[in-house]
Amino acid sequence: MDQDRIKLYLDNSTTMVVGTLKGDNYKGLKEILGYFPEDAMWRQQNNPHWDGLVTTVCYNKQYCKCAVKKDGMHFPTGLISKALSYFREKNIAYEIVDIRIDHVIDEFCLSLSSVSLKDGSPFKLYDYQQETVVKAINAQRGILKMATGSGKTKTAAAIIAALSIRPVIFYVTSKELLLQAVSDLEEVLLKDGLPITIGQIGCGRKTIGDITVMTVQTAVRAVGGKYVKFDEEDSNDNTDIEDIKKDIAELIRSAKLIICDECQHWAAETCTTIADNSTSARERFGLSATPYRDKGDDILIEACFGKQIVDIRASWLIQKGFLVKPYITFIPITNMKGQNLGPYPSVYKSAIVENAYRNEMIAKLASNLVSMGRTVLVLVQQIHHGELLAELIPGSVFMHGSSTEKYRKTHIEKIKSGHAPITISSTIFDEGIDCKPLDALILAGGGKSSTRALQRIGRVIRNYTYPDGRKKENAFVYDFRDHQKYLSQHASARHKIYMSETEFEIKNM
Predict the structure, then answer these.
(1) Which structural domain, as residue segments, surrounds residue 49?
(2) Within this chain, do residues 24 and 172 fall inside the same structural domain, yes or no?
(3) Residue 361, domain member (yes or no)
(4) CA angle at residue 286 from 284 to 288, to 5 degrees?
(5) Domain annotation covers residue 280
(6) Is the pLDDT at 148 greater than 90, yes or no?
(7) pTM (2 decimals)?
(8) Is 70 exceeded by the pLDDT of residue 327?
(9) C-beta of residue 199 within 8 angstroms of C-beta of residue 189
(10) Which stretch of 13-17, 46-50, 119-123, 344-348 has the lowest confidence by average pLDDT?
(11) What are the backbone angles phi and psi of residue 151, rounded to the nearest 5°?
């Protein structure tokens, strides 16, 4: 059947399809711009409520981001590349009508600092970072896949300086990332040759600037949404914003450039709400070492930011000497008799958190690593687990979400000076914490998320020169293969993602 030419009216957030997509062309576009959730295989069935769609689909309301309306069909502009590829493949005639408003560049000329950083080291962009900035500016939007330790925030600062548009919002997904992003951006950005003050919304502070760092949890609430946790390990930011809620919502709608760190968390429906409300942001970029999800809904990340335009992998950085090589050992835990019954939280509590044999093994391993001269990070998911391990491991310090900002900073300085050999931490050390002396990691908490596992490896593979002049040569990582129905599957998922990095050495005991 002949297909009439359609028009695609493209704005910063949404692309409207004007015209009729007939028969299989309509169904095909729905499928190419949709996704199956992680449990779709259990729930697939014909859906009589979607007129014309005869394929087997999942009832999940997020199955397809296309929406059929009386005035036509629309989809997130981030998916325009997928849509155009489909139209070309099916020989569907189309015309793009770009209705985005060009930015008016005012007197807002930022530059990068040409002086030394606070630690005395010179500021510079490596070649791969410079290339990333050029690609980003030319593409105007996209996903920047950059391994942990590749300098994502420094690269983002260079993009902000090169574009020199305002307002700018730098989104983060945790309070820890917010504090570090504010510090990092203030360290390298100048206006008229002078340091600038970065706005901060989150962690109890509410200041708006030309460049503002904001938690996504706060942003969702500002535009009338409700934040839903990314997973069971996600944190929250409960900053009271009622007095400036309207101002924040207006900032979100007026921002001309948005950048989100750890954009894999934007796959949640609540975070796509922010992207939909960013109606003035033609330039938008997502940063992540792992811009995908375990839940099968990766397409929602692309819907927010556009296609991936950069891929800087940890293995490449290791080969070039920017990161050190990790040696990952899987330790089997087999005392799981009687722990296969009950809901997952109960299994996790008995098999991991309160598993005395497993905890004693972790304690001995941590002490042995310290005796080898290693600086150790032990990661847990639950506070109670961290408390139990802290009692078992002499000289250890347990940090978690309730630890004050001052205490965290003081402790990180102790790690850097060699006076904190063993740190036990909850998920506050998962992302963004830059503590280069760490060279041994014990993944005591297991975990469902393979992407979080890769982020955690990044905590210990950053290059570092110790105070005595020694250079970090490698990192030791210990994970556990818990022989229990659920936990063994999670370990296999983590093992699989480690295997995706050719420079990761993996051994099974």
Answers:
(1) 6-98
(2) no
(3) yes
(4) 165
(5) yes
(6) no
(7) 0.86
(8) yes
(9) no
(10) 46-50
(11) 85, 50
